[in-house]
Write a structure and sequence with these properties.
Strand order of the largest sheet: 4-3-15-8-9-12
Number of strands: 17
Bound molecules: manganese (II) ion
Order of helices and strands: EEEHEEEEEEEHHEEEEHEEE
Strand content: 25-35%
CATH architecture: Alpha-Beta Complex
Largest sheet: 6 strands, mixed
Length: 231
């Protein structure tokens, strides 16, 4: 088979303990999945989980031990960080029950759901899709994937983000409104999950703006860290 032009490379993420890489298929994100973050965004109460997507090639892959580079995006003056646990699907499926969901997870990583908050807010106000606020180029930084068996008790891990060495976000994955299994149950009822799919599971409270020159260090205990500088 030939192509009319050279196809783009498949984005891929390093995996701890092997030179083989995880090929990225789709990037799903869960909205408002920690109560205190839902409140800071002006919402209360438990609502059914909802999802949005980013293009696979919006990932910014930060190799182990490196500090990545994150270009400040166009069209915004309110560029927000959202630190998130990322569940990485190794085995696909549809209508997966929460109790079976962990078997479908290859591993976990630390990710950032970067957001052009001003554009997202404008789209929300007008009842329009969030894409321009959420699914822009280089909006999904991610660090190396730790295989599930080596990741420890991810469901109860501390999750944090520091900007220039100061705490911005600090919580625990135990505070997810919809836990990882429940999220996969809901998501796989709407889409047939495929190997290579990433699920950004939501952010705790403390989202705020960054500017060029800031260095972000995100951590989920047991997974190592994600370090990236805004330029
Ligand atoms: Mn998010």
């Amino acid at each position: 088979m030939s192509f009319v032009f050279t196809p783009p490379a498949i984005p891929s993420v390093p995996v701890v303990g092997t030179s083989a890489r995880f090929p990225v298929n789709r990037v799903y994100c869960v909205g408002r999945n920690y109560e205190e973050h839902a409140k800071e965004m002006g919402f209360t109460g438990r609502e059914p989980p909802f999802f949005f997507l980013k293009p696979a090639n919006s990932v910014v892959v930060v190799e182990a031990g490196q500090t990545g580079t994150l270009p400040y995006p166009s069209l915004t003056s309110n560029f927000h960080h959202e630190i998130e646990l990322v569940a990485c699907i190794g085995t696909g499926g549809k209508n997966i029950k929460a109790a079976d969901a962990l078997k479908h997870i290859f591993g976990y990583a630390v990710g950032l759901d970067m957001t052009r908050r001003d554009l997202q807010g404008e789209m929300k106000k007008q009842g329009r899709p969030w894409c321009i606020g959420k699914a822009f180029d280089q909006s999904a930084p991610i660090g190396p994937i730790t295989p599930a068996a080596q990741a420890g008790d991810v469901a109860n891990a501390e999750i944090s983000l520091q900007v220039n060495g100061k705490d911005r976000q600090r919580s625990t994955v135990a505070k997810l409104i919809w836990n990882i299994g429940e999220t996969i149950e809901h998501l796989s009822a709407a889409w047939e999950l495929q190997p290579g799919d990433l699920i950004y599971t939501g952010t705790p409270e403390g989202v705020a703006a960054v500017v060029a020159g800031d260095t972000l260090v995100g951590e989920v205990k047991g997974l190592g860290s994600l370090s990236i500088k805004v330029v």
